[in-house]
User: Fold these one by one.
Assistant:
Number 1:
Amino acid sequence: MTVGICTHLGCSPTDKLQPGPQPSLPDDWLGGFLCPCHGSTFDMSGRVFKNKPAPDNLEVPPHMYVSDTRLLIGEDKKA
Amino acid sequence: MAEFKEISPNASATAKLANWFDNRFPSAGLFYRNHLSEYYAPKNFNFWYFFGSLALLVLVIQIVTGIFLVMHYKPDAALAFASVEYIMRDVPWGWLIRYMHSTGASAFFVVVYLHMFRGLIYGSYRKPRELVWIFGCAIFLCLMAEAFFGYLLPWGQMSYWGAQVIVNLFAAVPFIGPDLALLIRGDYVVSDATLNRFFSFHVIAIPLVLIGLIAAHILALHDVGSNNPDGVEIKATKDENGKPVDGIPFHPYYTVHDILGVSVFLMVFSAIVFFAPEVGGYFLEYNNFIPADPLKTPAHIAPVWYFTPYYSMLRATTDVMVDVLSLLAAAAAVFAVVKCKLSTLLKLVVVGAAAATIGLLQVFDAKFWGVVVMGAAVVILFFLPWLDASPVKSMRYRPSWHKWVYAVFVAFFLVLGYLGIQPPSEIGTIVAQVGTIFYFGFFLLMPWWSRLGEFKPVPERITFAAH
């Protein structure tokens, strides 16, 4: 659960969930997200890889599970 | 206040008309003489000197085609994309007007880059032409802003994401950044509000500033006089009438001469407009034929070719690069302290400055420094007149190896431009980092290297063979 806006310059990272070598990605890619603008890469949890332009992990917005199938974004009430 | 001049009643009708105007509007005649018929330009101009007048021609093309585009374009996020397609398909000759405008944008940068390179190799920025150069750099900066604002207007995918990235550059400024980006955008994302203000900047604000700066550029040039490929001051050798011996009146000599340059330029320009207006995706990017989608960044986004060298520098500034820059700052300080003959106080200042630089480099993240590097790459041009310490102006009389320094500089600039178009890659990043360091090294070390070597004797008069 992250905001799909790159912490570098605000592009929208695309999902590269398939592991393995791919264009613009390292050969030992484990799956994650690639920002097409400046090549920042994020892992499955939106954590940024080192030595990439993006300074931070993808932002995690306040959110909570109302039930097993319903997600509420914007509020985060601890149980 | 000029005296009223009577003319003989037997004079020709044209002479009478000219006299009538001269009595009522003497400034026009004065302007004509100062800037055209009695502006003495060196007679040894070569083809590099076409690009100034060509830039003026492209400006006129852009303004005239722009006026017609605005008649049919709708600056509204819901209508903009369709209105551009309407211009392309339904407006009579609309496709021609738009292709002239889009090709004109790239042509502007082609001629301006060549114009700047001319100034670089012939030392046209040296005393007394510093202000001419500075006005020129300001024009270049305005031109970049103008191109950027205009690129949002078609409201395609590249327009949208280009604007998103560039506006977010301002968000990298420490402390005030996010608010600054919000102020520029007028919204939390690039939206209708952004489109409207960019439209206003593109068609009114920047063109006004641009025209004012161009007037200042030309007036300052005509006050100090044109440089030439020999870098010799023609005003130093005057005839008994006070006219430079090596100068010829701009009109008719260079006005006619420039017709050749204009003809060749228009051949290339028309060929592109009529046969290849997209230039393989370089002048008009393919992704920009897709309407803007705020939820999906295109797979490969790259700026238009004229921004790519600077874009590469932005992309090259990673954490490793910041560490390398810190090391370079430290090395420069050590070199200055050990090798240069400085007073103890100055040594302390140098060490302090280096320590502060390294501290700042490490405190703020690479993202911010990427923006700084990108901006500094343009701003450093303003300081060129004071960085160059060579005893001669023109490349012709500099040591031969200087030519290689300039050649490598140009090569790196082109390579950076090429890499900026390509998708990011490991090796590309390393090459771009080397290129970025060379770019800044070229300028920052200029006070040192530009005075080294065997300089050739500069002639008293220009070298010119009549043809």
Note: The mean pLDDT of chain A is 87.
Number 2:
Amino acid sequence: MQKVLIINENDNVAVAVQPLKKGDEVDINIKDQEGVDKIRVRQDIPFGHKIALKRIKKGERIIKYGQTIGKATKYIDKGEYIHVDNVESTKGRGDLQGK
Amino acid sequence: MNIYKYSGYPRRNGSVGIRNYIAAIPTVGCVNEVVSRIAKHVNGVVPILHHQGCCQLKPDIGTVTRVLEGLGKNPNVVAILLVSLGCEAVNVKEIEKQLKVLKPTQSICLQELGGITKTVEKGIKIAQSLTSSIPNVKSENKLSSLMVGLKCGASDATSGIASNPAVGVAVDRLIDNGATVIFGETTEILGAEDVLVKRTVNNRVGSKILKKIEEMEQRAKSMGVDMRGSQPTPGNIRGGLTTIEEKSLGAIIKSGTKPINGALEYGEQPSGRGLYFMDTPGREIEVLTGLASGGCQLILFTTGVGAPQGFPLCPVIKISGNRNTCAYLKEHIDVDVSTIISGEESLTEAGEKIFREIVKVASGKKVKAELLNYDTNGVNIDIYVKGPVI
């Protein structure tokens, strides 16, 4: 059974379809810039949560379904856990009005 | 079994019921208790309890009127008992007039009848007489007479990768067979609007969808807070959904790939067939009510971590792609599509499984929510209003 699911070829994140443990090596069947098709998991990632497929700069868009789902609030390393601690939405941000 | 036909109850106006209910509708929340007591005494009577109908601004009273009429018009309803207080803002005579031309409709008023005791007595008598008029003759019907609503609730990351895409496959099949499908949840389009607007049949429909999304976002922003924490919900976040954009993209997949023919107001009935968008919030209770008012005889409800809801007038088919949920909340899940994630079934196969279940349920097969008698008390209903209660 597959460990992660990449929904769209343009995505920079994948979904863990099994819980991933720190140090696990995950086969992603897609080669990155360096021609590598495996990822070293950097943190425990629960089932259904996301893992970074590439290095993502602060402010860079997070892509899933081939579409933008938010932007990185800090540098995210390949294999890192992607969630509310390092990604923010760009929609419905009443808290940013007037800033 | 012919999977392109279902057995239902033909109605006078050409629509087809897949269930036979007498709806007892309070025209204002003040008489919920009356309706509840009547319904307890007569089998087959469904109380449509809600909290609206008075002390609201005109647009909202308009919505409430439209939805009460819409629920009465739903093909699964054979007859209607309207119960009014007598001084509410909703125009009871107008609702009665609209419904009477379609099906047996009677109206009683608490202030005219002299209190709750007499109104309940009278209501029980009327409801009993309406029961005896329920037709039980079924006929074979084409899928083109079917209207199906879509909803996702208690979503997690499996919703967007398994249950919603599988429903999308079933929706495409329904549309190919001439059926009508309505999806709503305006909040959950936020962030995915460009993808959706590209599928609308013309600019008018696209602009209306964008306008509804903008209104929803403005209302959220007007509270001066970040929408996060409310949408996605804390449960969504625990399930792995990070932002509203991610939730939306995973949510709109359930509408399939067909063109979007129109954008409906909340609770409005579509004028044609095919795929429609309806302006609704994300919350279950108002979505299900709006879809039923739109005329849906049946609702497909995808869930990640599990939701129990049914709706008093429509069977609600629960579909989950989360293996744990399918096992642990087995009593609530009708179709297990976790097979997509494990690789045992393709998306197309899972979609076909849902399509076949739709036809079976339309022909009378009870869904889990019905077997559990979920909400025969009629409290899982509420009408979406946008203005203040004043």
Note: The first strand of chain A starts at residue 4 and ends at 5.
Number 3:
Amino acid sequence: MNASDIVIQLDGKEPAEGPIVGRSRSYEPGEILSGQYTIDATSLGGKELSAVEVSVLWYSEGKGDEDLDVHEFWRKSTDDGDFIDPMRPERFSTTLPRSPLSYDGLIVKIRWCVRVRAFVGRREIVAELGFQLGNVPPPEEVEQ
Amino acid sequence: MRRYRGGETVLPRGLRFYPKKRGDRRTGSGRWGRLGEALFFTVFLAAGIGFLALVVITLLVPLWRLNNDFAETSCRVLDKRISEEPGEDGTLYRPELEIEYQVKGRTYRVWAYDIPPTHSSGRDDKQATLDSFIIHNDQNNQLYPCWYDPLEPKTVALVRGYGWMPLMALIPLVFIIVGGGGLIYTVLHWGKSAEHKAAAGLSSRETFPNIPDDSNITNSPGTTLDFRLPMATSPGWALFGVLMACLFWNGIVSVFVAIAVNSHLEGNPEWFLTIFITPFVLVGIGLVFLFIRQLLITTGVGPTLVEISGHPLHPGDHCDLFLSQSGRLSVNSIAVSLVCEEEATYRQGTDTRTESREVRRVELYRREGFEIHRGLPFEAECELDIPADAMHSLKADHNEINWQIVVDGDIAGWPDYSRSFPVVIRPASDGGQA
């Protein structure tokens, strides 16, 4: 099993060319982001899917050490008595926050994504789908 | 499905054996990292437990038995001496007395004083202790109290009490708390993803996550406009910082300069040392010039005040600024600008470095060629238009976006100066950027 065996789909909007992550869906703060994910059951190779986590989060890229902040987080785990059916698409929905907005700075970059992490045996498979929050254009370096 | 909401920024991973690259920095798989953390804290905990056991067995138990189990009797002092043993910072001393006492009809003669035997610095104290005991002879039959171990009567002490030694147990306790706490944290988070850890323990969400608080900016009312903006770094503190750096650097370098100069004066020049310290001396001279420059700015340029008609700011906002510059100055130019800087903090080896990059500068006001007279500050008002496409202020653990009003002064015959006044820009109030 690998990341391509997890498919994340967002509702409604079609991907458009944006200033941050190229062709991606763009949302405004306060807008509802919803969608679903599916896991290719045939790729599990008979191993048990013990837990699935879905996060709507932002992380930093660029020169600095990585910052990561989870806006919303869902977890299903067989240890907690949850029934996980990889054949069935699972839906998620959240109201997006007012900040931080997606940003493609010179040394500070803010990326938003929906991340699905599947725990199969002792392995963790991660897939993520980026989206853009807000519409801040990238800056230009100021000549000193 | 359990659902969590939250808003704390975390660096999600610990030690990494197999790093992967994200942006300019490296992050990586946490499995080996968590194992390393667990091992580190286990060693810390084990060392603490071992050390505590040693303290309990060799120190606390003997002390407790001396004060609770030992039987009292009386003894005669036959001789006295000061025992010496080498220590890290010189010789350590302990008073010792040869005493004679009887237990159940049997006479014991031993060298003793305290339990456990403790050597410490300060010979005079020990001599004074010995002087307080009188050796038994025909004219003197002074008896002193002593306490012996009923299980081993040869074990005896002339003083009781606990003193400061039980405090030694605090040292291993620190190891146990750090190691145990770290191990519990690691075990509780074992197998948890970075997202799960970031979401755990978070219950509330701020209205504007990761945007700095502006209470420090709006807590000082202005005399002309609504708020007087605080300066990022006051000139006095900047001068103090440069002075400390100058003294520290040149203090160390001066020792080597003195050695090199002496070698030349004595006709036996240390050429390697002379060449080696030359660049350090040049840096020291540079720091002296920097200090003089900062001193001139601090003493020669009077206070700069900036007031603003509204705060916090949003993209597309329009408000007024008021500038007041005191001093007795012949000004070539003074400019007020709105400046945005990105700031990134990262670890490089054992160092933590911070890099900043100016990404936007909008000049709001400029005036050239005028005089400022003492007691009559220069005052000006200008308009502040926040660019409609401005990124909002950001504050995370390692990444920041800072907006500030910057006043740049070019003074005739005096060093140029620059003073910054932070402001906070929030996302547009309608929820998005214009």
Note: Chain B touches chain A through 60 residues (CB under 8 Å).
Number 4:
Amino acid sequence: MLDLGPRGRALLCVLFFGSEAVLVATAGMRSDRSYGFRMFPEASTIVVHVSRRLDGGRQVPIEGGRWQAHDCSGGVHSFRWGEMVRYPAPGQLDVPVGAPYGVESEVHRTRDALAWVAAHTPDDCETRALVAHIEPRKNGRVVDAIDAEVMRGR
Amino acid sequence: MGVEATLRRLRDQTGDTSLLAVVRVGFGLLLLNEAWLATQQYSAGGYFGGHFHQPFLPDDLVPSAGVYQAVLAAQWIAALLVVAGRGARPALLVAAALLVYTMLCDRLWFHHYRHTMAAFSTLLAFAPCDRHLVLGRAANAAKAPLWAQSAIKAQVSVMYLASGGSKLLDPEWRGGRMMLGMVKGLSQLMQRNHLPASLVAAMQTPLGGSLLAKSAIATELGLAFLLWWPPTRRLAIWVGLVFHLVISQITPVKLFTMEMLLVYLLFATPDARARIVRYDPRRHSFVQIIASLDWLRRFELAPTAGAAFVVVDRGGAEKRGLGALAVVFGALPALFAAWPLVAAVAAIADLRRGSLRGTP
């Protein structure tokens, strides 16, 4: 089956390289530019600060990547950001982390990580939303900070 | 020759398949390494779905922990079959599909080298790469279709064009800003890899960053074409070899370098035993080194008592001394990095001899 005749060879090459051309041409539409062979796209970093928005709108920063919160029955639980979000996603908060696939990719990862943590911490009955303040440096140059907020389902 | 005729020739070409087998075993080992990395990550960090992951696919298509264990087992089995050469070609397809599937289940698992490995493995599956180096089976030396080998080589050019082209279109890249940032970030690694501090410092200047960036772009775009053109192919292979070795010295990228060096073998002209080494076995014991490094079977050894050391190159020219060494360095992969130096010294020595002969 893998020993193709002349027509099969031509067809496979058209399919393979045609798909590849589409992936290369559309790489810019994906935040990580994946499948486009864009090697070493940036030498960038981001610093992610995450805080919790509580009842009444008060914002409490997550320090050292840890926080404690009560569940809905009053029990206290500890949470660690770095246990839920791991490298190459921004698993460390408040320190520069590499963005080898570019700032846009790392910001995308941060937003998705916020959403994942918000959805997977049912024992935190205090936090209404997770808020990220992202400070990017694109190729060593400071660019505008980005804020993201994810509401938690109740 | 027109484009259509060239494409037909590439489609219908047949030839020796031993290099494809070497590349298959190399990719099998890299696939084994992938299976090991995934298993290690699973044992140390647990199932990827248990912490933040970023699927491209809908959640329903992301495997459960149990199914993922089966995926890992399949990765191991496929990689072992590729190395052994038994069922290697379907196994290459399975291994490539599993690599792509796992990257689609978690974008955090995406790396260019994994994508590249999947692409090369897919094309290699359509090549007769299972006729040599097969566990428990004698080699089949018959000629076979090489169109998929040409497709792998075309894939190399596509990658260089896409990579070099995207860098050329990015003003920060072609201006050197990205390179400057990368060198600054990796300067400690470079010094650990024994690069001179003065060189690392020079690379961190705006001029150094700009030159590095433009060289990288020119190298990638140039290689995409020069690897195909017979008069420049050998030099292009050497430039590519140095390019990838430098990348592996100044960045943590190692597996990508291995992949590229493996597929570079396919650009070598398939000419087993096309060169002859005539030597005296009692005086020229160093020929054993040539024999042990001749992984591509490029030399026919002709021991003759009392013979001078002579290498007959592919074109039939007899070479002695430095000229003979240049042929040896140009044909053995392990010595190839030093080939231009030896060839240049041999050429200079030839010129000097010629000018001395011309002196009245």
Note: The radius of gyration of chain B is 24 Å.
